[in-house]
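SEQUENCE-TO-STRUCTURE ENTRY
===========================

Subject: a protein chain together with a token-level encoding of how that chain folds.

Sequence line: the amino acid chain in single-letter code, read from start to end.

Question of interest: how does this chain fold, as expressed in backbone structure tokens?
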Amino acid sequence: MAVGIFAGIPVRDCKSAVEWYTKLLGRDPAFWPNDVEAVWQLADDLYVYVIEDAARVGGGVSMIWVDDPASEVDRIAARGIRPTGKEEHGGVCKWVFHDADGNETGIGGQVAS
């Protein structure tokens, strides 16, 4: 079975969400399928996108697994976004971020002991 993901995050306003997610992800969208969707490619066959969808706004929950989550969170903070919380589960940490619509994105992974 091939493995990939194209995960959507419902937002009120695509253009303002793009500003926030560009800071969170550290890059501009890879492409815009239309006026109400923007897509970021995180790795081969791994995508996240925002879509204007008033009926589903605020219900998104996701986590992006990275090699060095603490350093990634520092880079995100340098771009002006701070986590709203942190969870620790054994040797795994997840820093929690919330966009203006209440969608949650975690940045997490193994941390050195």
